[in-house]
Amino acid sequence: MDREQALAKTALALMGDCNVMPTPENFELFYIYASGENAVLSQIVSGMIGQRLPFGPQVLSELRARALSRERAAKAMEDVGTGISDMLDIVLDKLEDAGKHAGDYGRALSEASGELNDDHSPAALRKLVDGLLGATRAMEERTSNLENELQRSSEQVNELKVQLDDVRKESRIDQLTGIANRKAFDAELQAAIEDAAQTGAALTLLMCDIDHFKSFNDTWGHPTGDQVLRLVANCLSENVKGRDTAARYGGEEFVVILRQTALTDAIKLANQIRSHVEGKKLVKKSTGDILGSITISIGVAQLSQNDQVESLVQRADTCLYRAKHTGRNRVVGECELAVQAEIDAA
Question: Which one of 62, 188, 252, 336 is the catalytic residue?
Answer without folding.
Answer: 252
